[in-house]
Amino acid sequence: MHLTIDSATMRPLIYFYVIHGNISLHPKGQAHNIPNMTTQPSSDPKTLVHELSDSNAKDFIAKHKVCVVDVFAAWCGTCRLFYPAFEQSASENTDLTFCKIDGEKNPSFSFLVSPESIPYVAVFVDGQLVGGKVCGKKEILNEMIDTIRKNMGSAEKQS
After folding, report:
1. Which domains, and CATH codes, for the chain?
2. Which residues of 83-115 are buried (b: 16+ CB within 10 A; e: fewer)?
3. Is 88 left (phi over 0), alpha (psi -120 to 50) or beta?
4. What pLDDT, in 10s, does the model give residues 18-48?
5. Which pTM value belongs to this model?
6. With helix as H, strand as E and coil as C, how does the chain read?
């Protein structure tokens, strides 16, 4: 969404970015590709971002020390724009487990994390939800990962 003030009437003019397929059309006519968020789950252990559902989320998260979960919706343009940064973070932080779940198609998981808005990143440690944040920027995700690492370091020192 883009907000501009009409100088003649001093009223806001709002332009919505239209999402159609994998193309985002901007007010001035520019277009760019948006990653497809509806990929099939992979059984490949080298997959950087695992796709979860209500049926497998609890067991999958319980099997991993730290899970960073992107809660998205297929129709959400911001979610689509954020996903490449999430995927890049997964490639840079291979010691953490990165997952994605469509919050609209998986209401039980959404109820568990109660996202205020999307995209929302939830963090699970030892199968327990420890936090989450509305996260549409790589900088916010990096801050969350830094916090996870600090907390993991202090927990190891206490052991």
Report:
1. 2-33 (no CATH), 49-158 (3.40.30.10)
2. bebbbebbeebeebbbbbbbbeebeebbebbeb
3. alpha
4. 333 333 333 333 333 444 444 344 445 567 9
5. 0.70
6. CEEEECCCCCCEEEECCEEECCEEECCCCCEEECCCCCCCCCCCCCCCEEECCCCCHHHHHHCCCEEEEEEECCCCHHHHHHHHHHHHHHHHCCCCEEEEEECCCCHHHHHHHCCCCCCEEEEEECCEEEEEEECCCHHHHHHHHHHHHHHHHHHHHHC
